[in-house]
Amino acid sequence: MNFELGKHYHLYNRSNNEELVFRTDENYTYFLSKYRSYLQTFVATIAYCLMPTHFHFVVKVTTSNERGLQKSIGLLLSSYTKSINKRYNRHGGLFQPHTKAKEICDDCYLLTVVSYVHQNPICAKKAVTLGGWPYSSYRDIAGMRSGTLPDKDFYKNYFKSDEEFKKYSEEIVRSIKI
Fold first, then answer.
1. How far apart are the C-alpha atoms of 28 and 67, rounded to whole Å?
2. What single-letter DSSP state applies at residue 123?
């Protein structure tokens, strides 16, 4: 993984052998709290979605400390894995060896990736609507919840209101005919 200051990336990883990464509400919230503590000083979070077997984050790098960011991603995953191993009496790795980090080069693609991340629960038949999945940033960005993890100011560059963001997102979902 290579990161550059000021650039956007899609970070994602999945479990080994489709094992559940998140089994309870507590697991989801614990992972997000660990994400905050390990990564918030290195990135601004644009969007996220945690699914039972994987996660997605869209981030903007806010530091030139690339090595620190890479190390913090590893610490997040190993720390969470140790907690899950202890809690569920399991052993070994939980996540696949390499977290993917794809650079997002332009605004159009950036909004496409945000939409993709938020659509995950619908595609996986875990939710019927974008706002129906509690482990995604969609509710926060759409003004349906007051979460503080996603950078809501980012969206002001693209949408005049929460309603405009919701309308855009719902049109994308309808256009793919899930």
1. 26
2. H
Indicate if the alpha-carbon torsion angle 10, 11, 15, 16 is positive or negative: positive
Least Cα distance to 22 among 137, 135, 132, 130 occurs for: 135
Cβ atoms of 50 and 138 within 8 Å: the answer is no
Decide the pairing of beta strands 8-14 and 43-51. unpaired
The residue that leads in pLDDT, 126 or 175, is: 126
Report pLDDT digits (tens) over 26-56.
Answer: 999 999 999 999 999 999 999 999 999 999 9
- Given the structure tokens 């080994």, which residue do they identify? 16
Task: For residue 14, give the amino acid letter.
Answer: R
What is residue 150's DSSP assignment? B
CATH class of 8-176: alpha beta
Burial of 171 (0-12, 13-18, 19+ CB in 10 A): exposed
